[in-house]
């Protein structure tokens, strides 16, 4: 894993070196840009007191601040000045200066004169600048520039700041509040020297512990701090049965690349999930380009766009390392790391949701849903079957994916809540890792069926029909033998049952129900008539519960017969002299079998939610 990340970051550094700092928003606080002359002094106005406006610029930035031209310069200097561990500040003695290069000073206003602990800020200057020089490999020119800055800080910096109105408004406290920071950048220093100075600091400070740093084959290697902590003082984290203290050491340059990678994630300059392509490494560059130019996109959208760019070369993106990460209150967190051997964006057989359940004309215009890609499946099918709880469609038309996030039961039913928690990992693997076996036949049925039953309770008719269509149309993609439906292909069976039952009830006794499936479809039609005949003010689809709860055919027919008797007057009116109602009731009540009705309940519901054949107009 580490080597793939290192190679990925290395490629970005070589092909798009400015990507690390472009578009960054400066942090909250007071940012000061100072430009010294060749003598190390700050040029002043005619009064010989006030610093020249082009050589001393201040910017107060908070959450509401709007970008200005200087933000690019500020964010670039800030990026190369940032620290990653408070235990590795250059000002290790007084700990008042928090920046990591001598061309930048970060401190809190409260540490200037009367700090809560330690000495005032001015007493840190000597130690800070000396420590930066002692990192090694510092040229004579750099030493001269650093000394000039040190003298300026000792003699003039505090006085210049105290005369500035933006500085005067800053709160003088030392607690960990980002908005209290004062960040000074000496912008007369070429950015190339700033980058070199940062690299020098990282080479000495990125390893976790000097005791594990060694030199092998003229190369310094050590224990990386990337997603790693020391366990030498924690008994349960110690390797008590091994002869070595650590099992992985990496070179200095590799540690620096891991640091840069972490900074990209913390700045949200890479997507999550993040694929690092292995077979076709050239796609990594296009991934960055698509993400940078088109803004925040889902992984599926980016992969689709990448394949569009290479439609004459590749039909898929090959293997990749998949990293699902998040910036949390506790820092960077990797929620899933896995190798995907062969990811496919486009389905070999498109997923097509047909209008299997026949809707009443005028009720709803039934769309045919086409899913050519895994992205289509996620934002169309997954969004629907989990009731917008797993893949959430916002009012703006965007999608929020919650495969690893907290799910609130406040905005979905208990059934959906449990389904999301139980099955979201399987759908994540199916979508992002091309593990088609992750969603089993029974899992697919259980999810859809539980959601259908939940929506029956809530009387959501159109959602029920939509879920039935999805269940029937896509079942063979997850259940190749259609075992969920006794081997039947429901998109073919349901229309056939409808035609057969129509013929039976129109024949006035000349034709009869010939199969258990025909019986269940016809029984569903009869259940609809009973609910339709109910004159109560609280009419809903929940009224079918006394019927569908029966598993034996005798009990089921008895419940239907009682319903017919209860609504006999309404039945006489509905019959309207055509004989369809009588034929339907007679065929259902006269059929006998030993079937378990629960196994054919989906067919019963298909009959119930389809357009009534009794009320159907004769052409």
Describe it for me?
By secondary structure, this protein is α+β, with helices and mostly antiparallel strands. It is built from 20 helices and 14 strands. It has helices at 2-15, 71-81, 125-134, 140-162, 165-169, 191-205, 252-266, 282-294, 299-309, 374-385, 414-432, 441-457, 461-478, 490-506, 516-533, 545-548, 553-566, 568-575, 580-590, 601-609, and strands at residues 29-34, 56-61, 104-108, 181-186, 214-216, 219-222, 250-251, 274-277, 318-328, 331-343, 346-353, 369-373, 391-393, 399-401. Strands 2-1-4-3 form a 4-stranded mixed sheet, with helices on one face. α3 packs antiparallel against α4 (140-162) and α15 crosses α19. It is elongated. The mean pLDDT is 87.
Largest sheet: 4 strands, mixed
Q: Provide the helix percentage.
A: 40-55%
What would you call the shape? elongated
Which consecutive residue ranges, at least 5 long each, have pLDDT under 50?
none
Mean pLDDT: 87
Spatially, the strands of the biggest sheet line up as 2-1-4-3
Based on the model shown, name its key terms.
three-stranded antiparallel sheet; single chain; 619 residues; 43% helix; four-stranded mixed sheet; 20 helices; alpha+beta; elongated
């Amino acid at each position: 894993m580490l080597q793939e990340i290192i190679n990925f970051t290395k490629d970005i550094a070589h092909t798009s070196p400015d990507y690390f700092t472009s578009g960054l928003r400066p942090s909250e606080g007071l940012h000061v840009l100072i430009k010294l002359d060749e003598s190390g002094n700050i040029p002043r106005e005619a009064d010989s007191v006030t610093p020249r406006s082009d050589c001393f610029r201040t910017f107060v930035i908070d959450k509401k601040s709007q970008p200005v031209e200087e933000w690019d310069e500020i964010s670039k200097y800030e990026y190369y000045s940032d620290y990653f561990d408070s235990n590795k500040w250059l000002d290790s003695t007084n700990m008042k200066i928090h920046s990591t290069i001598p061309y930048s000073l970060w401190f809190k206003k409260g540490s200037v004169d009367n700090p809560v602990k330690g000495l005032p800020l001015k007493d840190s200057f000597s130690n800070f600048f000396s420590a930066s020089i002692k990192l090694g490999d510092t040229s004579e020119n750099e030493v001269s520039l650093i000394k000039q800055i040190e003298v300026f800080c000792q003699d003039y910096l505090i006085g210049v700041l105290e005369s500035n109105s933006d500085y005067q408004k800053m709160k003088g406290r030392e607690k960990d509040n980002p908005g209290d920071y004062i960040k000074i950048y000496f912008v007369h220093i070429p950015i190339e020297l700033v980058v070199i100075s940062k690299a020098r600091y990282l080479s000495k400070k990125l390893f976790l512990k000097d005791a594990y740093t060694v030199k092998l084959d003229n190369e310094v290697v050590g224990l990386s701090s990337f997603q790693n902590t020391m366990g030498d003082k924690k008994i349960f984290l110690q390797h008590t049965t091994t002869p070595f203290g650590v099992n992985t050491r990496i070179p200095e340059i590799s540690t620096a690349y891991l640091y840069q990678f972490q900074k990209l994630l913390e700045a949200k300059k890479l997507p999550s999930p993040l694929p690092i392509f292995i077979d076709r490494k050239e796609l990594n560059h296009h991934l960055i380009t698509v993400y940078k130019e088109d803004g925040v996109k889902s992984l599926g959208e980016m992969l689709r766009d990448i394949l569009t760019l290479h439609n004459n070369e590749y039909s898929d993106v090959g293997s990749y390392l998949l990293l699902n990460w998040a910036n949390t209150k506790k820092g960077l967190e990797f929620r899933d790391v896995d190798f995907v051997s062969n990811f496919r964006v486009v389905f070999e057989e498109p997923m097509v949701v047909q209008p299997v359940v026949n809707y009443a004309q005028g009720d709803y215009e039934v769309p045919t849903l086409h899913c050519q890609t895994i992205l289509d499946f996620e934002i169309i099918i997954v969004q629907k079957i989990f009731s917008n709880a797993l893949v959430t469609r916002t009012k703006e038309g965007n999608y929020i994916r919650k495969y690893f996030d907290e799910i609130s039961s406040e905005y979905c039913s208990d059934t959906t809540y449990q389904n999301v928690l139980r099955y979201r990992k399987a759908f994540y693997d199916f979508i992002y890792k091309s593990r088609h076996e992750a969603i089993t036949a029974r899992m697919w049925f259980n999810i859809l069926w539980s959601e259908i039953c939940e929506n029956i309770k809530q009387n959501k008719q159109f959602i029920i029909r939509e879920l039935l269509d999805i269940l029937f149309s896509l079942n063979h993609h997850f259940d190749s033998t259609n075992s969920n439906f006794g081997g039947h292909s429901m998109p073919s069976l349901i229309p056939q049952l409808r035609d057969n039952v129509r013929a039976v009830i129109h024949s006035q006794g000349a034709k009869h129900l010939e199969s258990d499936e025909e019986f269940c479809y016809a029984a569903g039609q009869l259940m609809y008539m009973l609910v339709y005949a109910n004159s109560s003010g609280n009419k809903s689809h929940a009224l079918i519960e006394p019927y569908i709860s029966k598993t034996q055919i005798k009990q089921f027919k008895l419940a239907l017969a009682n319903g017919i008797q209860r609504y006999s007057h309404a039945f006489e009116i509905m019959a309207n002299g055509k004989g369809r109602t009588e034929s339907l009731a007679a065929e259902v009540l006269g059929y006998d079998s030993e079937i378990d009705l629960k196994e054919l309940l989906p067919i019963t519901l298909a009959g119930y939610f389809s357009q009534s054949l009794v009320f159907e107009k004769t052409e």
